[in-house]
């Protein structure tokens, strides 16, 4: 049962029991407060006399037992939405002056010969590029996700994402093993967003790995045939159990230069696809395995 139905049913029963106690023209419900956090709904009634003057107020509280996970879901969605709004505003406020600064610094650079100042200006431009990359991450996180979906082979998408990560980390001598199930058919998904998911997860695996560490990427069909599953297994550092519950939170990071937005974006994109994501430490805490399951709604040819 969804949240809405649950609430409506509670209210209808609630209202009936109140109305039975008074004549209908004597009470009028006014405000309904649904407080998910304290598990209560309250209704305020105005009591009226024969000539409809308000002579009193009645407030009733009822405790409602939302299933725990639903309650958590609602508050998480609310939190994510308000964080998205703040981040969007921050990105906007920074991007405008940054664009103007960038233009002027570029202009100054063109005016200078190869002097010490020229070198400094290059450093300024590089730092501006880092700020710009950060602001882009914020924007990516806060923008509503596009809903288009196209028939896609997951295996091909993995290969494309991996190519990009290798370009980003040319110096790391990592050992990638691909175990791709060639039987997987096309599924409908937002290819750009799922590629983003794969890049974020593979980058995390690369960052957690030592100079030489095997990263195994495999694809499977779930036993019930309902999902296509991607598994990314690294052999780097494990995730400490006390932070496991935080890793999807926006801005949560254990890295010095991390944004903490990678997994927050991943979670949003997977939810958009009605998928499932599972992150757990490997046996003996040797690295981490990320499992993503996407509905395998088969494409009919
Ligand atoms: N493969 C992994 N191995 C170890 N820790 C990981 C892995 N993936 C994610 N984490 C943990 O989750 C945190 C959040 O990840 P993420 O949202 O991608 O942000 P960021 O990479 O910017 O820190 C990381 O800082 C790290 O502590
Ligand atoms: Mg990351």
Automatic annotation (TrEMBL):
Catalysed reactions, semicolon-separated: ATP + protein L-histidine = ADP + protein N-phospho-L-histidine
UniProt GO MF annotations: ATP binding; phosphorelay sensor kinase activity
Domain of life: Bacteria
The keyword Kinase appears for this protein: yes
Keyword field: ATP-binding, Kinase, Nucleotide-binding, Phosphoprotein, Transferase, Two-component regulatory system
Ranges of residues in domain Histidine kinase: 89-298
Enzyme Commission number(s): 2.7.13.3
SMART domains: HATPase_c, HisKA
Pfam families: HATPase_c, HisKA
Protein name, as recorded: histidine kinase
Lineage: Bacteria, Pseudomonadati, Pseudomonadota, Gammaproteobacteria, Orbales
């Amino acid at each position: 049962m969804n949240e809405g139905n649950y609430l409506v049913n509670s209210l209808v029963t609630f209202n009936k029991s109140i109305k039975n106690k008074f004549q209908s023209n004597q009470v009028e419900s006014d405000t309904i407060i649904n407080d998910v956090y304290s598990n209560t709904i309250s209704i305020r009634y105005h009591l009226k006399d024969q000539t409809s003057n308000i002579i009193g107020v009645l407030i009733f509280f009822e405790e409602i037992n939302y299933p725990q996970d639903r309650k958590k879901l609602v508050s998480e969605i609310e939190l994510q939405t308000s964080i998205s709004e703040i981040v969007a505003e921050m990105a906007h406020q920074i991007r405008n002056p940054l664009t103007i600064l960038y233009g002027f610094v570029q202009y100054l650079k063109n005016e200078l010969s190869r002097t010490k100042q020229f070198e400094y200006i290059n450093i300024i431009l590089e730092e501006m590029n880092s700020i710009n990359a950060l602001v882009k991450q914020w924007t990516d996180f806060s923008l509503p996700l596009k809903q288009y979906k196209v028939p896609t082979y997951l295996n091909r998408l993995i290969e494309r994402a991996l190519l990009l990560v290798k370009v980003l980390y040319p110096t790391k001598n990592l050992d990638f093993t691909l175990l791709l199930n060639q039987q997987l058919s096309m599924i409908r998904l937002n290819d750009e967003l799922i590629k983003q998911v794969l890049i974020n997860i593979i980058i995390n695996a690369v960052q957690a790995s030592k100079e030489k560490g095997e990263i195994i990427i495999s694809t499977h069909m779930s036993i019930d045939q309902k999902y296509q599953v991607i598994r990314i297994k690294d052999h780097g550092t494990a995730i400490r159990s006390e932070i496991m519950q935080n890793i999807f939170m926006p801005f949560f990071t254990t890295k010095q230069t991390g944004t903490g937005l990678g997994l927050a974006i991943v979670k949003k994109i997977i939810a958009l696809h009605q998928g499932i994501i599972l992150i757990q430490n490997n046996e003996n805490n040797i690295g981490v395995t990320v499992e993503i399951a996407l509905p395998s709604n088969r494409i009919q040819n």
